[in-house]
Write a structure and sequence with these properties.
The protein is α/β, with parallel strands linked by helices. Helix content is about 30%, strand content about 25%. The relative contact order is 0.15. It binds pyridoxal-5'-phosphate (PLP).
Length: about 475
């Protein structure tokens, strides 16, 4: 195993010669073999994160299931690694559900969420035994109709709209979460700006309908608040409100959920900064979250005499951020004496770090090979796109020249799955590293892929051989793409 003199996570770090490694493969080697930009994922970090979070929760409450939020990284290879590490699945839509099931995830530890679901999504969930979290009354009818037609019994959970007054005094620090820093309180934000969930007043009636329906097996309660702030009090408020509502439902209709699903939203941070405006530094650990959640949960269960149901958590960023990095090459640089700034253009872009563009997210950049070079103040790392494209602004960074490599840390969550193609930029390849082996799990996009859906109408297509033009362009742009290397 590579010995790190500086570790950014357990499996990403710098060795004695100043080179950045993911497990036992040097990032310089990955860039040379697979081209840049390239997402690199560490399989060992997936295993380690899953083991740590599972231990943190199960040591306090053995009946906990960790459902990896597939939206955070819907790459099938990555999803499979999470599944093999023991994760269940949280899914939105047909595609995520299919990928989660193809990865071999246990359907009993998989849930389908969503504000509005298509018949095809519900059909796949019913056929595979995945619990469907109904978001409104109409959806219960939809599930019942589909289950009846299939001759199956659908597993169903309810997603009520909580009031979340317990966090009215807390303020969100993420502009992308719907409120400006110092703006709406988190409680108000969750009540007013979030579309998901059925009105509280309907929950007992929907519950009665579900219990009376032979095509429905009512199994759970669900809520998701999201990362509004790196603070355990949000999830504590979710848990205490969920338990209170469960007690009210039990008193009214005699039903007790088989599981409580408290959603995701646990933060990920690093000392150098991550997340909204680089604010996530000293965030609660898995143990801190587990302590707060389980204490509130077990107190509530005892107080309301609700037995010992399963507890589901749906982490995305907390278990997937530090599993990956984005390796990128310097394309060009310039110094502007008038402002004292150094602008460095990279082949990675906001297209590949979409939360940077939409939520002011910071991904900490590090040098891949340049350890020991002098630091340059007022460096701006930017992309080649025609948007502002400031990936890291006004930082101190080792001196860079054309062709040098840098890596953005913690890009394992919401980067590949949100990557876009603005300015007709093909999306990067993704490589999964396991020990000394690196293998492609998403091949690099080509212009032919990018324009595959484009049709030129006959009246405009004279003398245009699009497939040939694209094939020629792809040859021109072609990067080395081995499927597997052994370092
Ligand atoms: C229902 C649900 N569960 C889990 C998650 C994962 O959230 P996070 O990555 O903040 O843990 C999300 C994210 O949007 C979600 O909508």
């Amino acid at each position: 195993m590579t010995q790190f003199v500086r570790a950014y996570s357990e499996h990403v770090g710098v060795d004695g010669s100043g080179l950045l490694y993911v497990e036992d493969v040097a990032c310089e080697e990955l860039a040379a073999q697979f081209g840049t930009p390239v997402f690199v994922i560490s399989e060992a970090q997936i295993q380690s994160n899953m083991a740590s979070i599972t231990r943190a929760f199960r040591s306090r409450y053995p009946r906990t299931e960790v459902l990896f939020a597939t939206k955070a990284n819907n790459n099938l290879g990555v999803r499979r690694a999470f599944t093999l590490a023991g994760a269940g699945g949280e899914c939105f839509g047909y595609g995520e559900l299919l990928v989660t099931l193809l990865a071999g995830t246990d359907p009993k530890a998989t849930v389908l969420n969503g504000f509005a679901k298509n018949d095809r999504d519900v059909t796949l969930a019913v056929k595979s035994g995945v619990a469907i979290h109904v978001d409104n009354r109409g959806e219960l009818e939809q599930v019942s109709r589909i289950a009846t037609k299939l001759g199956r019994i659908a597993r169903v959970g309810l997603r009520p709209r909580f009031l979340m007054h317990e966090v009215d005094e807390l303020r969100s620090d993420w502009p992308g979460a719907g409120s400006e820093p110092g703006g709406e309180s988190i409680g108000a934000n969750l009540r007013v700006n979030y579309k998901n969930g059925m009105p509280l007043g309907e929950v007992v009636d929907v519950c009665r309908e579900a219990l009376a329906d032979p095509a429905i097996d009512l199994v759970g309660l669900h809520y998701h608040a999201g990362r509004e702030l790196a603070d355990v009090r949000i999830l504590q408020a979710v848990v205490s409100e969920q338990v209170r509502i469960a007690a009210r439902i039990r008193d009214d209709v005699g039903w007790v959920p088989e599981y409580f699903d408290v959603g995701g939203g646990m933060a990920f941070g690093r000392p150098e900064g991550h997340g909204p405006l680089a604010r996530d530094r000293d965030v609660p650990s898995y143990d801190d979250y587990a302590d707060a959640i389980i204490e509130t949960f077990t107190d509530g269960l005892t107080k309301h005499d609700l037995g010992e149901p399963r507890l589901m958590i749906e982490p995305g960023r907390a278990v997937a951020s530090n599993i990956g990095i984005l390796v990128s090459r310097v394309v060009e640089g310039k110094y502007v004496p008038e402002t004292g700034q150094t602008w460095i253009a990279l082949d990675a872009s906001q297209n590949h770090l979409m939360n940077n563009q939409s939520g002011g997210f910071y991904y900490h950049p590090v040098s891949v090979t340049e350890a020991g070079r002098p630091l340059v103040a007022h460096t701006n790392l930017v992309d080649q796109n025609c948007w502002d494209g400031n990936l890291a602004f006004d930082i101190k960074f080792p001196e860079l020249a054309r062709g040098d490599l840098i890596a953005f840390l913690d890009t394992g969550a919401y980067c590949e799955s949100k990557a876009a193609t603005f300015n007709l930029t093909p999306r990067p390849a993704t490589v999964l590293v396991s020990g000394g082996v690196a293998e492609i799990v998403t091949r690099r996009e080509t212009l032919t892929d990018l324009l595959a859906r484009v049709e030129v109408p006959q009246m405009l297509s004279k003398e245009l051989d699009l497939p040939r033009a694209l094939a020629e362009a792809d040859e021109e742009l072609a990067l080395p793409t081995p499927r597997r290397i052994n370092a």
